[in-house]
Amino acid sequence: MAIRHQVIERPPDAVWAVLEDPELYADWVVGTSASWPLDSRWPQVDASLAYRVDLGPWTFEGRTIVRRVESPRWLELEADSGRLGTARIAIEVRPWGGHALVLVDEHPLRGPGGALHAPPLDLLIQLRHRSMLPRLARTVERVAAAPGSTSRATAGGRARSGRV
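User: That's the sequence. What structure does it adopt?
Assistant: Structure tokens below.
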């Protein structure tokens, strides 16, 4: 199982503000070049966003669907990559002192990825999360520091990451 965590030195509501904005996913999800809502209900159950991945001359689009949400603590998603299958991504945001502890648990669910799920695939997901969680922290920092931000986050935060 590919589980990673990161302490983001902002309160949980600042992290949640980023998670509930479907247009920000491309800013922190590794490999994604654009994201946009497919309906106005994000992040309610069954709401979805679309994303684009650019690999050299090839462009691929997929869809991510909310499967479970308990604001502002849990967000479980199913990323649908078409013929490659789907993946379950569970994001938990825990209060950690005055900061947020973010845990991400991702694994293949359906299709070839689910059928071929093995430790080498978990290693690739771990490497992806090693980049993704610091990107999430930077996005939270940027959004929280923006003029007019509705987040109650404070300035000057830093992030630490690691494996669970």
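The CA atoms of residues 4 and 164 lie 5 Å apart.
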